[in-house]
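Data deposition worksheet. Section B asks for the primary sequence of the deposited chain exactly as it was used as input, without tags or linkers unless they were present during the calculation. Section C holds the resulting structure in token form. Section D is free text for depositor observations; keep each observation to a single sentence. Incomplete worksheets are returned to the depositor.
Section A, Depositor: J.P.
Section B:
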Amino acid sequence: MESVNEGSMESVNEASPEELDGKELELFTTNLRFDALFTSPPEVPDWERFVKFAINLDNGCRVPEKFKWNDLKMFTNNFSEKNFIDWTQFCKVYRGRTLQGQEVTVKIWVPQDVYTTVGRENVVRLQQEVIFLSRIRDHPYLVKLIGYCCDDDDDDHIGVVYDLNSVDTLHKLIKQDSFTWQTRLNVALKFASVIEFLHSYEPKYFVCNIDAAHVMLDQDSNPVLFDFAMLVGGIFGYTPPDISCKRRPLCGSFGYIDPQYFDTGIYTEWTDVFAFGVVLLMLISKRVWDRDSSIAAWQATMQGKDRGRTVQQWALEKYSQLSKRFWCKNSLVHKSLKRDPGFDASRGVNVTELAIRCVQKKRYGQWPPPPKIAEVVSILRLWAVADAS
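Section C:
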């Protein structure tokens, strides 16, 4: 990775929160409602006062650093291609290094064609992420925020800096032969545990845009969730989108969207369980739904054409075919993983069945029912203990 040698940063750590007037307080609570992103983009109060007020609602919140755009350029050597890691739903992600030599990950919001935005939506998304990561309890597989950038005169210059020494995104590692069977199961367990952690809050947090490209593996092969562009619940509220809105709200990353959402228009815990099931299917089958797949699906939708099969659709069809062959084990594990020294055929069948349960459309009276994320974690943990013995 390329390094840099100069730059500057501003700290807001010593700044005390100022009292918001009545109008700003109303704007604050409006901005914390995620559905505000999908109606008329609200007026945004003073950025720094907004963030300082929000994160100081609870004692002990971590106040992030405020960076300038030039700092982010400096950390990443002017966003060099060599330091580029991957795309997320709305952002580009880079490796970086601070003046002190700390390895970091930098994420910047960029205009792009797949997921369009209106007005200051990305600014509000950045606000939400900064507030969320500053207030949330520590979890080993949830990214830690160092600071943010939001230039006052340019909404295109916004980003965050994470305390994360990245290897690569999960979606880029899935096809690699060096990514072993046991490592995949360990990643699945750890990733499920961070979703369980978010669902344990009252009210629950729902990620809503779980995507293999939104999970970074660190130097110890731990999965770290680092994108929260569609986060709902907790302090942000659950309000379902306004169905009368002319512009249908985004409802997750293409290829990971729970079909039940289209029936109800409401985010639930099944939204995240479904998307996790898609990631689990990718881990065992080495099939990847990537950005090119999303672009092709979006273009086909706009032209009224067939969008092609998602990983979930392929898996359900393949699993149904295998179920009709009494001599065939219902495993969707890729043949190369079956040659892994740590692979067990019966476990491959178990993991396949769990993934299929996650992505099947929820129906009344269905048996077995779709699992809650706590059940997924319990099952994966039980298998991990059994496989280690």
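Section D:
Confidence is low (pLDDT under 50) at residues 2-22, 32-45, 239-248.
The CA atoms of residues 330 and 353 lie 8 Å apart.
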